[in-house]
Sequence to fold (1472 residues):
Amino acid sequence: MDPSMGVNSVTISVEGMTCNSCVWTIEQQIGKVNGVHHIKVSLEEKNATIIYDPKLQTPKTLQEAIDDMGFDAVLHNPDPLPVLTDTLFLTVTASLTLPWDHIQSTLLKTKGVTDIKIYPQKRTVAVTIIPSIVNANQIKELVPELRLDTGTLEKKSGACEDHSMAQAGEVVLKMKVEGMTCHSCTSTIEGKIGKLQGVQRIKVSLDNQEATIVYQPHLISVEEMKKQIEAMGFPAFVKKQPKYLKLGAIDVERLKNTPVKSSEGSQQRSPSYTSDSTATFIIDGMHCKSCVSNIESTLSALQYVSSIVVSLENRSATVKYNASSVTPESLRKAIEAISPGLYRVSIASEVESASNSPSSSSLQKIPLDVVSQPLTQETVINIDGMTCNSCVQSIEGVISKKPGVKSIRVSLANSNGTIEYDPLLTSPETLRGAIEDMGFDATLSGMTPVQDKEEGKTSSKCYIQVTGMTCASCVANIERNLRREEGIYSILVALMAGKAEVRYNPAVIQPPMIAEFIRELGFGATVIENADEGDGVLELVVRGMTCASCVHKIESSLTKHRGILYCSVALATNKAHIKYDPEIIGPRDIIHTIESLGFEASLVKKDRSASHLDHKREIRQWRRSFLVSLFFCIPVMGLMIYMMVMDHHFATLHHNQNMSKEEMINLHSSMFLERQILPGLSVMNLLSFLLCVPVQFFGGWYFYIQAYKALKHKTANMDVLIVLATTIAFAYSLVILLVAMYERAKVNPITFFDTPPMLFVFIALGRWLEHIAKGKTSEALAKLISLQATEATIVTLDSDNILLSEEQVDVELVQRGDIIKVVPGGKFPVDGRVIEGHSMVDESLITGEAMPVAKKPGSTVIAGSINQNGSLLICATHVGADTTLSQIVKLVEEAQTSKAPIQQFADKLSGYFVPFIVFVSIATLLVWIVIGFLNFEIVETYFPGYSRSISRTETIIRFAFQASITVLCIACPCSLGLATPTAVMVGTGVGAQNGILIKGGEPLEMAHKVKVVVFDKTGTITHGTPVVNQVKVLTESNRISHHKILAIVGTAESNSEHPLGAAITKYCKQELDTETLGTCIDFQVVPGCGISCKVTNIEGLLHKNNWNIEDNNIKNASLVQIDASNEQSPTSSSMIIDAQISNALNAQQYKVLIGNREWMIRNGLVIHNDVDDFMTEHERKGRTAVLVAVDDELCGLIAIADTVKPEAELAIHILKSMGLEVVLMTGDNSKTARSIASQVGITKVFAEVLPSHKVAKVKQLQEEGKRVAMVGDGINDSPALAMANVGIAIGTGTDVAIEAADVVLIRNDLLDVVASIDLSRKTVKRIRINFVFALIYNLVGIPIAAGVFMPIGLVLQPWMGSAAMAASSVSVVLSSLFLKLYRKPTYESYELPVRSQIGQKSPSEISVHVGIDDTSRNSPKLGLLDRIVNYSRASINSLRSDKRSLNSVVTSEPDKHSLLVGDFREDDDTAL
Fold:
């Protein structure tokens, strides 16, 4: 089929629309273009759908036309879609007064009419229309001389009319005709077949490749027509068996033998059957003129309503209708059903007009549709995917409005719909497509009779990872397109998880093909292999089981159920473990099944606190380890110091000579600690041993475990070295002690029992602190999880959507397809789609933007967001782990677990250090053994514990061991281990004093490596709350003054809950210097549009202000020309004011409208071009412009925006001067983002970014090899904060962000971002110095300990080893304490040197990327004139910055000129 013929539709993405006026402009301009039948522009989805004639236009030319209007138009899919058309046959009623060509030109000018064929000999016009744009009634109104053909065409003469023919009636036939390529094919077939005798009408559709023929079977057979079409070269076969038409009015007349002369007669008689009646209805709930036109247009489209008049003032509607076809009650229901479904209607009166019908009662009972259109057929469509009566109603509501549909009955029980339709206006295939477009699976019952039964057997499910989705319209696009593919039964896409769940027929299609379809739509798609994760898993506690037969009963009953994949029940634990398919069955059904067997079943209470992520266990164990070691270490250290002092004292007495055995014995007996309890066992050694054992085995237990694990994986870390040193020291000491006791030695051996406690204390402290820091991060998840609602209110509705019952259930029991009620102020328990109600919803949880979002039927809602003002009924689409909130929890979890800790430098070093030291130690042992045997004198000279009573070999081995142990001891990585933690402790402490909370060493170490700083916009760079930037008076100040507008607007908005309303009220109170405002009545809000109300009692405010004006006017007389009303003396003026107030002024009431363009237009106000330009200018700067009308006159414009923090520009400049790249990332639109970026000097912007995409963007930057710091404040930033190398949260942000971040700035000050990076750089520098200290001790001490310098008399006694070790630790700690001297730079110290260099960025320097893709949209290059204007502006600015004092005198009641000057200054100096 050639798509260049017929009518096509194309969807073009349009960027740069800010409001409904942009939408209106595009629709007006493009709608006028030749060849465009219809255009619909959507501001939400940012696209335009255009139906056009491909002979006159192409998608490219339409895209260029939109581009030329100043918007960015992008054609994602250049292939247009064909649009289905319908053909109406219209017959000329009376003698034709108009020429045929006049009819043709009139109809061709009508939007939605694509083609007209005229058959003058048959007095018939065939009009091809696009049913979605125009219908038969509208065509009839345009040319009243034509009427819709009702079954027969007038014959040339009455003679050929015969009884048998009339009785035979006509038959409608549908044929499939293949091989047609263009419209000349269709006209050839229509021309040839139309001339055959017995063929009444024929319409050939090129799009559907079919012919619809109305013929008389007694004159021509189906076979004959088929042969004729095939003779022209087109294969044809009968699609539907011919079906006799129902008898029309004319046939009834014929049967009564009343010859019909002409269609005039029937035309004149037909009104005689109608009996017109009038009814008046009272309608509540209409807001504005648009409601009126909505009701009028909807009702007048009904065929049994002849006229309707609706009055907004009287809240009434007067309807003239055909009493034989409809009752006032059904009309009342029809009005109530009109969208948005908020009208409340009651019948006021009902007047029957005299029925002038003929006496024949049988005739009067003929239903109207049979009289007007006897061509009807019936089709049955199987509909899958309906879950409740609201689905039934929505299908009936939508399909009944389709052209050609007479009636529809949908059955939820049978999963089908029976539709009566006119085959000339619509086809079963069109209706099936319409139902599918609503999101259900529809099949024609004749088409696939077995599919319904087969589906259960042959359907499979697969999961596909989808990337590149940015918003809900992407989801809808994928779901809509995939449902059309053959073999796909259902598809459900989750935006945050980036996952599609598809149920398909494996005989027809395979997962890779499905992924390919998604890729063709422009998204990335990969099949997820392990698809089990989509199965629901349910853990239940089952009470009441007594024996194995109970278990069997439950298991067998459950496994018989469709949708239960696996079931296992344990009698001992009373638990059931069930796997099920959530599409077929849900947890509530399973619980009901078990309860129906006579047992009690309840959910296993899940721990919602994310306790698996906190480090409580580790914190406890390291704290215990530290305290045990400390408790025993203090006395050991005391003993050690005492012995060191005493040893040193005696050593100096004996001038370092090797004492003889006798001297030693004397010495030992003189010291209490060296006295021997048993031979060879001194008090000192016994105490040391007793104190060391608990530390070695209880304090060091975890070290042993860690060391074992490390060795098992063939790695050596700090733990291995610690365990090695302590174990060898302990074991060696113990062995020596036992040997001495066995030998009953008189001299006490030298032991190393003091090493383990000392080591373990330092290391355990470091580990304990480290885990405390880590534990903090996981509290974020506990906070996030607590955002989830714990319960949901599930409601059951009957067929009329009337609430039958409500029940509270646990959130985990909510199933897909449940209807859930959410009250104002309640949290949404699951993701879903609104089916009833209107409300505003706070979604800052996901988007981070403070503005609430309007929700109406069809909108999607997110779990965890908060419903604000209206009650909503939602249908659950994603439950349990699939909800958006669960996905954010998962993102944060993954980011925290995947962020590898910076492998501590010490750990890396110890990887080499440990084996090296062990090697040196063993080498020392071996070398000394060799030396000892070769040259015993050296050992004899230098071995302090040498006694002649011991054998030579033993002496050598003992000496060698002692040297090697000393090596291990002195090399103990204690100071290495302390180098980082002590600096980090001091650094974090100093940070905390300066308002920067740093969680642990990782972020502190990492921050100095950061290369890119990513800022969130709302609440980080800006304040996060809207503020009024400017109020512009649009009328003369003598008509309504500036203050009067403020008083009226402030009062009106004081009842509004919207953030913009609150901002306006706050501003008005500040300007009027008052806390109380006037009175507001009849307050109405229309979400997404504005408010209307009546305001009184504002004179008091104005009176108060007039006093102030009087004073100011006297002071400023030289500056300002005083208003005419204030020209008298102050006293007389105030008297007049008092008089006014006491009079009628007090009761004056103002009718106020505040809102956007659409709201004003709805209420019949005209917005002039200059006002529109002002609004557009503000919108271009990322502000929200709101219009104010008082008493139906447009009198003010208020610009509101989120303002930039004063220090933002300076902070960003300093970060850049530190060599960092700065990026802005926001969920807000690109216009606002660009405006904010230009104010603070950021050149790279990512706008309209989802939380999951923030993570992806951070990852992308990290993959480029850059270390990323993310600065944010909202829940939506928390996954990115966790993913970034350093997450920095603003202290005024949400708890979750604060928990997910590594660094928290207590003060809401962006200069602290600079300070935190600066502090990190200083700390890392200090850590490096510490490492130098630690290593010097090791590098110098090890050779000495190993005895390298013995020949020159440098011997290391063991106590010296311990002392050196202690000294290295102390020096490291002291070095770290130097960080305490750090001072945070102040605003002033930064500002002075930098001020001169800061300049705002011009828009052309900023690159804006939308969503996650990297295709940036640079600002348009400025023309020469624009540049000149920019330069001159900049120079004026610099001049004005010096002369600001001149402008600082502001008058209280500005006249028009001062207002304009005010505007000009405000617009240019946005940053100040």
About this structure: The first helix runs from residue 20 to 31.
